[in-house]
Write a structure and sequence with these properties.
Blueprint lengths: L2 E3 L3 H11 L5 H23 L2 E7 L4 E7 L5 E7 L2 H11 L4 E9 L13 E7 L8 E5 L2 E2 L3 H13 L4 E9 L1 H10 L4 E7 L2 E2 L5 E2 L5 H6 L1
Parallel strand pairs: 1-10, 4-5, 4-7, 7-9, 8-9, 9-10
Antiparallel strand pairs: 2-3, 5-6, 11-12
Bound molecules: 1-O-pyrophosphono-5-O-phosphono-alpha-D-ribofuranose.
Amino acid sequence: GDAHVITHALAKHTLSKLRSSDTDQVAFRNGLIELGRLCGFEIIDGMMDTEYVSITTPLAETTGEVVKGLDDVVIVNVLRAATPFVEGLVGAFPRARQGVISAGRDEQAGMDEGGEFPITIDYVKLPDIDEDDTVIIADPMLATGSTIVAVLEEVFEVGDPERLVVLSAVSAPPGLVRVGDAFPSADILTVSIDERLDEDGYIVPGVGDAGDRAFG
Ligand code: PRP
C-alpha cells in the first residue's frame, strides 16, 4: 500500500523532458518508452528477488545470480496513453504476458464532489493471472485514481496475483490515497508525486494529457 517514488536520475531526466511543452509528439512517445524501460529495471531491482545458480563459463564452474519470477509477469496496458510506456516495460520484461484494458474518464460528466470520475470500460482482455504472478498495471498518469480502481477491479475478477504493482510516471496525492485505501495490497510506484489536481482533474504541474501528446 505504500507509494514509492522512483529516484533513478535518468527517470527524473526523462520525466523532465516529458513535462516540457517544447517536447513534440515523437519525442514524447520516445520519452515514455524510455521511462517505461527504466521503471521496469527499477521494479526488478527494488522488488524482485534473486537466487544463485551454477554456471559453467568457457573457463570454469562458478555461481551467478539470476532474477526470480521473470517468467511470471503480466503487464496491463491501460489504453491509450500507456501504450508507449508498456513498450518500454516489455523491454525490461521480454517474457511478460500482456493484458489490455480500455478505460477512460467520462470528461463530459466531470469530476464529482468526492473527486472521482465515472469510468467507461470498453474493452478488457487479460491473460490468466496465477497466484505466483507479478502483475504490473501501467498508466502514465494517476490523477483521481478512478481509472486505476476500475482496472484493479477487472484484474481481481481474473485472479489474485502474488504481487500487484501500479506504475505511473506522474501521480497526484488524491489518486495515491484512493488507490492505497481501496487496494492496500498493491505496491504503488511513481516517478513523481506532483502537487495537486486542478478543477478539471488534471495533474499540476503534470505532463498535460499524455494520450493526446503521444498520439495527437
Ligand atoms: C488519462 C490517463 C489515465 C487517467 C488518469 O486517461 O491516461 O488513464 O486519465 O486519471 P484518473 O486517475 O483521474 O482516473 P484518459 O481518460 O484521458 O484516456 P486516454 O489515455 O485515452 O487519453
